[in-house]
């Protein structure tokens, strides 16, 4: 309670300092200035069974992760497209989103909450837990793109975020809904919990700490980076380190949430997908609502590929754009169950035991969102491609030498682009987006090992070592002359 009180104080402080009156969260006058026609309050969203033949719906206020049908199917948050169309024309929706992006207005300046009516329309603005996430840069990899024979390679830098991965986008939505349910007394939720390969737990811990909600994270011991482990520790989460892999942690957390009032925050929970889809809408905004040709998403549990497709498809179905890009799932060879199924013509999907990979956040062999991913790929003429350890680290090093600082997952995406370009699947003039899912600074261990030439199965062709020298200018100049013409 005390922390919740403090959050209110944080939000009030800028206005208080300016001597402004007490905070009005949903500021209708400002919203009017941002959108000539404010959307009606009647928009709403529900959980719907992902199995199209079932169609059961449930309130978002219910604690529920799967349908009640015999298939135990996943859920999807659904919106009434007719109501959205009636509320405003496509050009007015585009204008509203463009005006809000990056503005100072709570909560609409957030990249996620700037699309509130398409995400969680019903939630009270004062119950939203936001760190003004999203609005991440779309980096034009001009020099690096040329080396791959591409004129338009763009990197959506989702790692430029509060906890340094795309997980913030989904977690603001999930934790806001939990906060809303706790505040309105809709559900008894003692804590929120997740299994994680490191980034989900970091995001959950931060958003829970901001809201004053207890947080539990279940981690595969020794299989995440030091930076990722430190994040939930610093944010005061209860950190459970288990001698298993991510798939094992996922099973454990699902068993736990069935028995005690802990709310599940993995992307099995479709609320996460709703926030993550906002990054697709941002990409459209960043191209002035022109649709790119390819969007490549490094994937593990397969929630994010569906989230991106859903964002693009929503803009298409609602008439804001005229097509959906081709979606590409990029997997690490050591954790490639979807790639195997795709390669075999979708005849059979079988979970695997994922092996260790430098792309440790996607070391997942039994992806929960398998049905969502196949659905998205089938509807976007999608592709699955893989990259091995050497390919991941080699391309990451080459990209870094053109000014990036890639995490290994972004390396998987880049390696896949290189392969598809070499095969001629991607054309020279195609507009290609690689989703950078996390910040490279969370994954320094593998980068250091690469430059020291110590990584298993990797040839460090582009290793760059610091040159240790005595405290003498002549020694510096001699050393420089061995590297550049002076
Ligand atoms: C300085 S306040 C200005 C007041 C604002 N016009 C309003 O809605 O009342 C807005 C800025 O604070 C930021 N911000 C970040 N976290 C916030 C939070 N938790 N609550 C409110 N604003 C936040 C955003 O960067 C935003 O640009
Ligand atoms: C995709 S371009 C769209 C073209 C743009 N309207 C123009 O001025 O030509 C705009 C986006 O690219 C981004 N951007 C990042 N690095 C850039 C760079 N080096 N050159 C151009 N745009 C860059 C920003 O995120 C920006 O939102
Ligand atoms: C950095 C990073 N990239 C990619 C992924 C994969 O996303 P998804 O599990 O939704 O496929 C994750 C998390 O699992 C991640 O942390």
From TrEMBL:
Localization: Plastid, Chloroplast
A GO term, aspect molecular function: threonine synthase activity
Chain positions with N6-(pyridoxal phosphate)lysine modification: 167
Keyword Thylakoid: no
Residue span, Tryptophan synthase beta chain-like PALP domain: 129-437
Cofactor(s), names only, from the UniProt record: pyridoxal 5'-phosphate
InterPro entries: Cys_Synth/Cystath_Beta-Synth, Thr_synthase-like, TrpB-like_PALP, TrpB-like_PALP_sf
Keywords recorded for this protein, A-Z: Amino-acid biosynthesis, Chloroplast, Lyase, Plastid, Pyridoxal phosphate, S-adenosyl-L-methionine, Transit peptide
Pfam families: PALP (PF00291)
CDD domains the record matches: Thr-synth_1
Catalytic activity entry: O-phospho-L-homoserine + H2O = L-threonine + phosphate
One BP annotation, GO: amino acid biosynthetic process
Main location (coarse class): plastid
Sequence similarity: Belongs to the threonine synthase family.
Subunit note: Homodimer.
Name of the protein described by the UniProt record: Tryptophan synthase beta chain-like PALP domain-containing protein
Lineage: Eukaryota, Haptista, Haptophyta, Pavlovophyceae, Pavlovales
